[in-house]
Write a structure and sequence with these properties.
Elements lengths: L4 E11 L4 H5 L6 H15 L12 E16 L2 E11 L7 H15 L2 E4 L2 H16 L4 H5 L16 E3 H5 L10 H8 L12 H6 L3 H26 L4 H18 L4 H14 L6
Parallel strand pairs: 1-4, 4-5
Antiparallel strand pairs: 1-2, 2-3
Helix pairs in contact: 3-4, 7-9, 9-10, 10-11
């Protein structure tokens, strides 16, 4: 199948404290106490190594994505940016957020692009969809045994950059921020994932979505450079794709200051050398 669209995505989550009583029998109603109990449980089952909750124990509070149309000609592929946004609106709950995501995915039938999406984002989305009874048949039925969203090595269906860049674990798995530092992209600035729960508690959901969108942009930039390196994307088409990003930011940066901040940080990281 030749996909017609790229769908670069990222999610932000908070610990699912509603499950703690069922998991450990802990009855304290306070959110902070339940988060601590969830961390205690995960430290216990990992021998004190990792308090981070496993994928089922997350609630999704933001899903951000970038859509680009895939063009093809004798030089290879080209990508034409359509939109960058976050799902849902103020007041949307998790179920509505997930319904919107999977409805959009089922309609678009895209090539997925992520950073650790196969290991974290997509499993979380699957678990939470199951919690809410949301169907996603295309995710499972599309393609064949070797080429599908379920095939780990089928990067044309889901390019998880963490997996692809590390040769599926043959080399060390770098963090997105580390890859961005090497390539002259902004990476994380001002916010990181460890602050999301506090931001959510303070009612700063829009700030979480803004942060998530900058992660999507970083992921897209790394993907573009990988495709240029592979020869799938000519250098001219790579530069055109970057120009699309800059044009979007210049058009929307005033209304969306986090995008203007991203462009400024990109200039600093690259010494204002955006193109190849």
């Amino acid at each position: 199948m030749q996909h017609q669209n790229l769908f670069v995505f990222d999610i932000e989550t908070i610990p699912d404290t509603d499950t703690v009583a069922n998991l450990t029998g802990f009855e304290e109603p306070g959110v902070v106490a339940r988060r601590e109990e969830l961390e205690r449980y995960h430290l216990d089952i990992t021998g004190g190594k990792n308090p981070f909750p496993r994928q089922p124990f997350h609630k999704v509070v933001a899903i951000s994505f970038l859509e680009a149309e895939i063009g093809r000609d004798s030089s290879g592929e080209s990508y034409h940016l359509r939109e960058l946004r976050s799902g849902g609106e103020a007041g949307f709950d998790e179920k509505q957020l997930l319904q919107g995501f999977f409805s959009y995915f089922e309609r678009l039938k895209p090539r997925l692009v992520s950073y650790n999406g196969r290991g974290f984002d997509l499993p979380v989305l699957k678990y939470r969809a199951m919690v809410h009874g949301i169907q996603a048949p295309w995710l499972y039925d599309a393609g064949d045994k070797w080429n599908s969203y379920q095939s780990r090595y089928s990067a044309d269906w889901h390019c998880d950059l963490l997996e692809v860049l590390s040769d599926f674990g043959a080399s060390s798995r770098g963090k997105l921020n580390e890859i961005c530092a090497v390539l002259g992209f902004p990476g994380k600035f001002g916010v990181d994932g460890s602050k999301v729960a506090t931001m959510f508690d303070d009612g700063n959901v829009q700030e979480i979505r803004d942060y998530c969108e900058t992660d999507v942009l970083n992921t897209y930039l790394v993907y573009l450079r990988l495709m240029q390196h592979k020869g799938t994307l000519s250098t001219d088409n790579y530069n055109h794709a970057l120009a699309d990003i800059i044009a979007l930011i210049e058009a929307e940066g005033e209304a969306r200051p986090h995008l203007a901040g991203f462009l400024e940080a990109w200039g600093e990281a690259s010494n204002n050398s955006f193109m190849l």
